[in-house]
Amino acid sequence: MMEWILYVASMVLFVYIAFILPTAWLKVERIHYDLGLGKKILQISDFHVERLRITPRRLQRVIERERPDYVFLTGDYTQLERKLPLLERYFAVFAQCGVPVYAVLGNHDYQLRKVIKIVRLLDDYRIQLLRNESVRLPGFQLIGIDDFRSGKSRIAKSFEGTNTEQRRIVITHDPNIVLHLQESYDYLMAGHLHGKQLNLPFFYRFRPMGKLPAMGIYKGMHKTAYGTYYISKGIGQTGLNIRFMVRSEVTLHCV
């Protein structure tokens, strides 16, 4: 009987350590890519608040400790209307910290029956949403391209009015768009792929997520002929609320 109890306890512990702990064991991934701006940008991607195990208070502590110059949100907040009050608690953190925040939408946000409710919530908390548009910030131009997977991306419109005389930083949700970008950029931040979430061989054969992950590119920093891009592993989960060999991540980009 005791051996059976120990066996069950061991299995429960294994499942927790292997699949549950990585969802709550938040990592601040630090990326140094010198653009000469001297800025710290905190990227937070893929909230999926209906499955998020990182609390608003914990996120607030990260922001207070790291003291970024900007926070960039790269989409997928929630697809459930009933979870908007929970999402609002996270947006309130940014208002309290007083850091400028810019955002784009993700494919799950467009699955919400009324995506306008997320748009309004972002506006309520003075989070500037970029939907195929750009804004000039000190030392660089920030370009927000709407979600590629949802068919909302308008690349030419996004880059309209920008130039190569200043740094061009892009935020978007689905990194697959880099295979279609023929505009030069200095740095691009995306999410969407969760670092694979379940780090298993041939995962993207069973769950196709576009050409990029099929090529073995689903996290970290990479380059194309047009610029350098980074794919965040994200802070939340989609589908099953588990991760395997992939920790939750927020990313501090030192540029």
TrEMBL record:
Origin superkingdom: Bacteria
Domain Calcineurin-like phosphoesterase: residue ranges: 40-194
Pfam families recorded: Metallophos
Keywords recorded for this protein, A-Z: Hydrolase, Membrane, Metal-binding, Transmembrane, Transmembrane helix
UniProt cross-references to InterPro entries, sorted A to Z: Calcineurin-like_PHP, Metallophosphoesterase_sf
Transmembrane segments: 6-26
Claim: Hydrolase is one of the keywords in the record: yes
Name of protein: Calcineurin-like phosphoesterase domain-containing protein
